[in-house]
Amino acid sequence: MSRQRLVLLAALGLVMVVTGFFAVFGAPDDGKVTGIWPVGVATGAAILAGRRWLLPVLLVVLSVAVVTIWAGGRPLEVAVGYSLGTVGEVWLIWRLLTRNGTQQPSLQDDGDMRWFFGATSLGALVAATAGLVTSALTGWGNPWLVALALGSAHLASELTLLPFFAKLLPHPAVAPLGERIAQWTLILVVTPLVFWPNDFPSVVFVVIPLLGWGALRNTQWEALLQMLAVLGIAVFFTTAGLGPLAHVPEQYGMPVDARGVILATYAIDCAMIAIPLMLTVARQLENARQAAAERDKVQNIVNSATGVAIIGTDEVGRITLWNPGAEQLLGYTHDEVLGRFTTMLHSPAGIREKARELGVADDFIAVALAMAAPESAGRDMKFLTKSGEERTHSMTLTRMTDERGRVTGHVSTSEDVTERVQAQEALVEALETERRAVERLREVDQVKDSFVSSVSHELRTPITSIVGYLEMLSDGAFGDLNADQADAVRRVSDNSDRLLALIDDLLTLSRVQDEGLTVTDRAFDLRQVVRKGHDVVAPAWVARDLAVTLELPEEPIPFFGDRDMVERVMVNLIGNAVKFTPDGGRVGIRMERVDDGAEIAVSDTGIGIPASEQEQLFSRFFRSSVAQQRAIPGSGLGLSIAKAVVEKHGGSVRVESVLDEGTTFHVWLPAVV
Questions:
Q1: Could you tell me the domains of the chain?
Q2: Which residue, among 299, 201, 291, has the nearest Cα to 250 in the 3D structure?
Q3: For a disulfide at 146, which of 116, 135, 328, 350, Cβ 3.0-4.6 Å?
Q4: Any transmembrane segments, and where (predicted)?
Q5: Is the pTM of this model over 0.70?
Q6: 300 versus 501: which is more confidently predicted?
């Protein structure tokens, strides 16, 4: 324990001894109780000592109580009984108010006040019970009168003294210095005056309004001191046999101990008036301080939001709040709009447009009510600036209500999104223009495809006829050809075959695009199709220096689909590998069964495909830049047809390629299990 606290406890002990003797010796000579014994000081000492030093303090309280009561002429057994009740009271109140020594008693709000009154009342009940039992066992006085006198006296002491040891809510005095001096003057003058005459007991209650005045206008400590001063004067005069309370028992034929009961009741009345008033004022001042701090905080936030217009109105729409953001965005100053209606901020056309959008009547109030709905938060609203320009704001309108649910006003927060809205509208317009352009391109593409299909159909018949006549010329049906003539016929025949193949590709692609690829399903062995594709392309590498390998599994791989179409895929892939691989290179065709189907890999060591072009590889008419640079012939249709055929059969195609190193196409097809 610190030295300062030890000195304070010693001082409290001295006060307890002095006032204890005063209380006992001031009681009536033929009384059975002790007057208002300073049990509140004893409880305060226990609170100040804490849990560790509680027992020594209780022993001191017991000793002081026994000595003072016994010395005042009460029998020893009575003094011990009263003292044990006092110690029990001190311990119980200490335990309740400090939560068993874990915290300092608090007297700051209504909950604390109820707990304080309850704890002190229970403590006084313990003292009253001890007095009742002591009186009954010793025959000292009337047990019920003793219990009433001790209980009321101890409650008065606790109520008037314990608040000094509680944690109060500090606040400055509301009253100026002159008013406070007047209060003290009246208390120190009026109190002795009302306690001097022997008649008119009710006149003593004139002082209570003065205590209420002080509780409402002074600090809590000053209000408590004023109450203590009044009670000190009352106790002094009454003990001295002066004042209206001193002679009440004689005037009304009551026991002499009734004087202490009346005096204690008066003290309890004073405490029950002063304590709630001073707590209420302290709480209101604290709430006002917090509200002011919160108001200042909100005001600072509102004022600092220069990019957001914050506008407040009363319940009928008159402007009461106009922050710097509103001044900056709308051009009006605070003084120019204060008290005016918010209709000035919106044009009739803007209200009409918003009403149509919200589906409400063309009326400002109807639009405002709809905008205040939670689902309308963040909607765009047009505002008129001071210059007459109409700007688009993203606005949230909030309805303000009081504790009874009545609307007290509205607050709107908005920010200027005019540029964003204009950009969005421009983007929408651009997207619409692009959509129309894409639609036109699609129409043009369809016309082109129809034209290509029509031309291809028209060309196929004459070219077929040309090829037929060329075969007849080569066979000598029209006479023998010399070497030059035969070479010319061969060249024309080769180019005709290429043209016929291109026409077939165009017709196949046209079918894929127009009505989808139609396949003829039948069962066959995939190995045979791969070998057939190999054999069809074989003449293309016979006269070249290419190493071509074919690897097929030994077991058949049954497949259900269009044999001719799948064979066309193999011809296209193997033909491309041969075409794009220079002499001295290698071409490999490998087929193997996988868990859920068959995978065919066609690889080469040819020119490869740039990585940036591989995503376009299966687009129709696409030819890589490398193929074009090296003037390698081709239509760019083979891979798109191959991909369409494979996907029609439930398979997939992927490519791996490195420029100048080669390419590998992987075809996966679902085999029949």
A1: 1-168 (1.10.1760), 171-297 (no CATH), 305-416 (3.30.450.20), 427-512 (1.10.287.130), 517-669 (3.30.565.10)
A2: 201
A3: 135
A4: 7-27, 54-72, 78-94, 115-138, 144-165, 200-216, 223-246, 258-279
A5: no
A6: 300
